[in-house]
Design a protein that fits this description.
The protein is an alpha/beta fold. The chain has 15 helices and 17 strands. It folds into 2 domains: 5-13 and 287-475, glycerate kinase, domain 1 (3-Layer(aba) Sandwich), CATH 3.40.1480.10; 22-153 and 188-230 and 267-284, Glycerate kinase, MOFRL-like N-terminal domain (Rossmann fold). It has a 6-stranded parallel sheet, sandwiched between helices. A 6-stranded mixed sheet has the order 10-13-17-14-15-16, sandwiched between helices. A 3-stranded antiparallel sheet has the order 1-2-3.
């Protein structure tokens, strides 16, 4: 697929969204040092009264977040450990300011989305640092998307293999990330507020880059320092809802059932006194990236419409719904001056909790953010953004003047090297000419092969951030005769 002006414009808008989620810049906006005062959120701390600052973290963006913290606090950081996804960029460097070499903060690579032994080793190291913190210490915890898989500390009686199996089954069945993390928390020795429990009575400041709709603190990275509102019983209900009991290890089910029966202590809940010395601070999220995309689209001459920052549901279904809105804008009757002859139309909400939005005449840009899911039906290769783009391509097949891009802000989409994909009215035809069927690829969940055949994959490489996905539509003004 040859580069087109609309594709280049979509990439420009997408990059604007990525820039708004830059982890280091986000940390600098929320963490400030003025002499011996450290200000973050509602805290104003006297560093002269802090014995040690410990820096820990987990997630795809945590290394870049940690680098910004180290830039701000320098020699005050005495020890630290951060788990990042293998091959994550922007490691902490010697310029960060630690007192003596070697660096006092270790950046440790581990597996994602399926946890591995390296992740367990790193999670144990983090747990040891937390347990060694005293009442005059400050723990700064950098948390971002991917943190749940990168903090795989199995609860007593469980193994890494158990957690790997649970993660694989939950990802394959189409469970939402919120549901996956409810289960994960109750199989962990560090998630679901248990990191805060390990660190008590030290102060804990968590800097959080949200990759979850609505920014729920107990769901992002499975909430290691947040009160947990979920229970063992809810974890069991999720497993039952998807009918996956027989696919899970028996000792996993036994732990969840024992917990639901009160035989195992629950994760710490809201109101627990240990959270009086904990502050969880959101430093960046999908909303900021969507707003940046809208501003960029306006600068390119498109009227931006933000559909939602809470987009969820089956990828192919949401794609078809959004395509219908794009087609409505394209066919909206306008006069010779480009003014709509029917006034502002209103789109039906894509989810019950999303308000209707006025649809302007073209040129327009529909923007949304969130995270869809894919229920696997075949054995192909792809990710939720590529599947979204494939369904979108089929919905606008043969229609000029519409282009679409879906991309993960972390630069990866499923188990592939692509962030997502680009589609327009020619996409399906181009693939057909290459002997590739859009319908067959969608049925087989084989979107990567489809877009790879025509050069439609969007590849950014790992971005060092993660605030869910962005869905961008451009609708060009059509000639009127």
């Amino acid at each position: 697929m040859n580069p087109s002006p609309m594709r280049e414009q979509l990439m420009t808008i997408f990059r604007a969204g990525l820039a708004a989620a830059d982890p280091a810049a986000a940390v600098r906006r929320h963490l400030r040092r003025e002499g011996e005062r450290l200000r973050a959120g509602g805290w104003d701390l006297d560093l002269s009264k802090i014995q040690r600052v410990l820096l820990v973290g987990a997630g795809k963006a945590s290394a870049r977040m940690g680098a910004a913290v180290q830039e701000i606090l320098g020699e005050r950081i005495r020890d630290g450990w951060i788990n990042v996804k293998t091959s994550a960029p922007a490691q902490i460097t010697a310029e960060g300011g630690c007192a003596t070499p070697p660096l006092c903060v270790t950046v440790h690579e581990a597996g994602h989305p399926v946890p591995d032994e390296a992740g367990v080793d790193g999670a144990r190291r983090i747990a040891e640092l937390l347990e060694g913190a005293g009442p005059d210490d400050l723990v700064i915890f950098c948390i971002s998307g991917g943190g749940s898989a990168l903090l795989p500390l199995p609860a007593e009686g469980l193994t890494l293999a158990d957690k790997q199996r649970v993660t694989q089954v939950l990802l394959r069945c189409g469970a939402k990330i919120q549901e996956i993390n409810v289960v994960r928390k109750h199989l962990s020795g560090i998630k679901g507020g248990q990191a805060a429990r390990l660190a008590a009575p030290a102060r804990v400041l968590s800097l959080i880059l949200s990759d979850v709709i609505g920014d729920p603190l107990d769901i992002i990275a499975s909430g290691p320092t947040a009160p947990d509102t979920s229970t063992f019983a809810q974890a069991l209900k999720i497993i039952s809802r998807y009918g996956i009991e027989k696919e899970l290890p028996p000792n996993v089910l036994a732990r969840l059932r024992d917990g639901a029966a009160g035989l195992i202590s629950e994760t710490p809940k809201p109101g627990d006194p240990l959270f009086e010395r904990v502050q969880n601070l959101i430093v960046a999220n999908n909303s900021a990236s969507v707003a940046a995309c809208a501003e960029c689209a306006r600068g390119l001459g498109y009227a931006p419409v933000v559909l939602s920052t809470a987009t969820e549901g089956e990828a192919r279904d949401v794609a078809r719904a959004q395509a219908a809105l794009a087609l409505e804008i394209l066919t909206m009757p306008i006069d010779k001056n480009g003014v709509s002859l029917v006034g502002a139309r209103h789109a039906l909400p894509l989810r019950a909790n999303v308000a209707p939005h006025p649809l302007p005449p073209p040129p327009a840009c529909l923007i949304s953010g969130g995270e869809t899911t894919v229920t696997l039906r075949g054995h192909g290769r792809g990710g939720r953004n590529q599947e979204f783009a494939l369904a979108a391509a089929m919905a606008i097949d043969g229609t000029p003047g519409i282009a679409f891009l879906a991309g993960g802000t972390d630069g990866t989409d499923g188990p592939t090297d692509a962030a997502g994909a680009y589609a327009d009215g020619d996409t399906v035809r181009l693939a057909r000419e290459k002997g590739v069927s859009a319908a067959d690829c969608l049925e087989a969940n084989d979107s990567y092969r489809f877009f790879d055949a025509i050069g439609g994959l969007v590849k950014t490489g790992p971005t060092g951030t993660n605030v869910m996905d962005l869905y961008l539509w451009l609708i060009a003004a059509q000639p009127r005769f």
